[in-house]
Amino acid sequence: MTLFTFDPLLLFLSLFFKKTFIPKFCFSPALLTEKTIAAEHRMRVTSSLLLASLLLLLLPPSHMKRPGKGRGLKGARHKLTRDRVRGFGRHSRSGPSRIAAPDCSELTESGDVFIDCQDRRLTSIPTSQTWSKQPKHLLLARNRIKVLRDGAFFGFESLTSLDLQQNHISLVGEGAFQGLKRLTTLLLQHNRLGTLSEEALISMPNLHYLRLYDNPWNCLCPMDSLIRTLQVPSNRNLGNHARCAEPTRLKGMKLKQIDPESLCKEKTDPTGDPQGDQTDPTDLVVPIPIRTKPDATTSCHTYLYPQIRMDCRRRGLTEVPTGIPEDVVHIDLSHNSIRHLKARDFQGARSLRTLNISHNNMEHIDTASLSGLLHLRELDLSDNSLHFVQYGVLEDLYFLLQLKLGENPWVCDYSIHYMMYWLRLHPGVRYSGLLCRSPPQHTGESVEEYVRSYNRECPKDRQPSRTDQDQTDPELWNTAMEVQGELEEELEPSHLRVPQKYRIIRLS
Questions:
Q1: Which of 192, 285, 443, 479 is at a distance of 20 to 30 A from 365, taking alpha carbons?
Q2: Which has more pLDDT, 45 or 498?
Q3: What confidence tens digit (pLDDT) does each residue in 419-428 have?
Q4: Cα–Cα distance, 165 to 5 (Å, whole number)
Q5: For strand 378-380 and strand 410-411, is the pairing parallel, antiparallel, or unpaired?
Q6: pLDDT tens string 303-355
Q7: Sign of the C-alpha dihedral, residues 390, 395, 396, 400?
Q8: How far apart are CA 312 and CA 331, in angstroms?
């Protein structure tokens, strides 16, 4: 039996054109031999095999394995690469995930990029790949961050300010701020730091402003290097107002006032043996502090960016704190117990734009209390116990735009006229809440309507008298009586005349 060999392409073409070629050969039925019948049979079998092979080539293999499954190390690598790609998608700007990209605000002001992550309940530093641009200011205040580990701010090399106040930070690694060579401002106040190494500050050569107050500093030997750094004269803005919480003999003392030589010295008895944990009874005597006004820097929360703002709400203040920075723009003193605004309370706040003193039960405002606030735009005096505003209180508020006066027991008598007089001279000021609380006949009436009706009635006791008319009538200025008075003044002996401090010139 001989094997039949064929060219698949030739067979395919011959089968395709079978109907074209076969009719051209006119075979007689008598001429068909057994050999030709066998050849035709082989041709049909071959065509069937060729068709089956073509179908097998065209159909996708159902038994092929998917990549990444059941291939050992190669499949594991493929899966790891795929997960990394998906992870990068979550970190990207187009598709942030809840974990990788917290709900922070990205804004630009004066060409600087700010990332505002305040009050987001964060427990760690967000990744730098979350945002489209490199930020210059990162605001992380009022979160739940406890530890700053080495390299915590990797990728934030462009930062110039970092706000970490009001967290739960109790530990800072020596390399936590590594790479922040451009950082100039670091806020760590209102945390739980007991110690901090000088090594943590070395990686920030341009640091000029450091706040460390309201932390329970343990002023023992490990704090020696930090205290020496803070006491360098060129570092006058580093660590101001930070005070010791322990040991008892140093409690309340500022870090900048402590002798660093005494921190690492052990006390010894006359025999030369260490006394161990024994303490000098005189160290336990704490002097009674002298009562002074509260300091604004330690009593309030200060936020530097995008504008300097002091939050003094609900701090139990009974008076305006001292030490308000000159460049502060916004101050919120609401919900305290301030009853009296005294002169020069805001004398240093020359740049102040908004001042909120609402909800304080305030009863009195001195004339010079708001002097110097030439740039103030908004003033909130609502929810207090004001009956009237003393004459001259508002005289320096040339550019005031909004005045809130609601929920005050305004008394509609002659003392309230100054307020309406000032408001009429400043028509651009939007005010609200100026309603009469007493006397009963004017309760609920607007102060503006009360003053208008007061002037309309013009009581007899307010009509000008004859004496007032003589002093104010220009027609009587050149009468004989006035001329006689002037002549008598000129004839008065010179040694009896009182020196005139001012020279009055009358212009008719």
A1: 443
A2: 45
A3: 999 999 999 9
A4: 88
A5: unpaired
A6: 888 788 999 999 999 999 988 888 899 999 999 999 999 988 998 888 999 99
A7: positive
A8: 7
Distance CA 483, CA 503 (A): 18
The residue assigned the tokens 């809130």 is 404
Cβ atoms of 162 and 184 closer than 8 Å: no
The residue behind tokens 């005070």 is: 243
Nearest Cα residue to 314 out of 335, 296, 299: 335
Strand order in the sheet with 161-163: 105-109, 112-116, 137-139, 161-163, 185-187, 209-211
**Number of other residues whose CB lies within 10 A of the CB of residue 447:** 23
**Among 401, 457, 411, 400, residue whose Cα is nearest residue 434:** 411
> Which of these, 111, 122, 124, 190, lies nearest to 158 by C-alpha position?
111
Superfamily of domain 296-462: Ribonuclease Inhibitor (3.80.10.10)
How far from chain centre, in Å, is Cα 148?
20
422: tokens are 């000032």
Residue with tokens 């700053």: 148
Report how far Cα 138 is from the mean position of its chain's Cα atoms.
9
* pLDDT of residue 282 exceeding 60: no
Top pLDDT among 179 and 506 is at 179
Could you say which architecture CATH assigns to the domain 105-261?
Alpha-Beta Horseshoe (3.80)
Specify the DSSP class assigned to residue 146. Answer: -
The segment(s) of the chain belonging to CATH 3.80.10.10 are 105-261, 296-462
Q: Is the pTM of this model over 0.85?
A: no
pLDDT score of 115: 92
